[in-house]
Design goal:
The protein is α/β, with parallel strands linked by helices and 177 residues long. It has one domain: P-loop containing nucleotide triphosphate hydrolases (Rossmann fold). It has 6 helices and 6 strands, in the order βαβαβαβααβαβ. A 6-stranded parallel sheet has the order 3-2-4-5-1-6, sandwiched between helices. The protein is globular.
Length: 177
């Protein structure tokens, strides 16, 4: 099936459970297996991760672009640099959409960027409206805005039932990073 024959959907992976980015990467892996081009923009991530290393092996069909800075953001008082970088990531997403640069565009942690006030929900909704009909758009991150979920075609909420972090197990290379 060519990209022009494929109707894209808007998918949202949200919730307080683990697996939102991982779910989007599973979708990306499946798409790459069918020859589809996938770009993931990481709004709040800058550290080296296993998925970025893997994406290099699957290039040019899978590209992951970190657009955040290292470290955590204070949700009560984000730094101006965080806002600038989130706006830059959203502007880049707009350009990728305008150019029809990929079949699937994943905006990783964009829901958090909205929840933290780094970008306006109206701006994200405009991006959702601007996507070509054949492009799949995937939005990840906790605290998806109700308007974003309403506009989406699919919303999956990951629910935290039990997590080893709660028992003091630190982040593990190859499973969390």
């Amino acid at each position: 099936m060519s990209a022009s024959e494929h109707k894209g959907m808007i998918q949202v992976y949200t919730g307080d459970g683990k697996g939102k980015t991982t779910a989007s990467l599973g979708l990306a892996l499946r798409a790459v297996g069918h020859g589809r081009k996938v770009i993931m923009l990481q709004f709040l991530k800058a550290q080296d991760t296993g998925e970025r290393v893997s994406a290099q092996q699957l290039a040019p069909l899978l590209t992951i672009i970190p657009m955040g800075r290292a470290g955590f953001i204070n949700p009560a008082k984000p730094e101006p640099e965080d806002k600038r970088m989130a706006k830059k990531a959203l502007d880049y997403a707009k350009e990728l959409i305008r150019l029809k640069a990929c079949d699937i565009l994943i905006l990783d942690e964009v829901n958090i960027a909205v929840a933290f006030g780094l970008i306006a929900v109206e701006d994200l909704l405009a991006v959702m409206d601007s996507r070509p009909e054949e492009m799949e758009l995937v939005l990840t991150g906790r605290n998806a805005h109700p308007k974003v979920m309403e506009k989406a075609d699919l919303v999956t909420e990951m629910k935290n039932i039990k997590h080893y972090y709660d028992q003091g197990v630190p982040e593990r290379i190859s499973t969390e990073r």
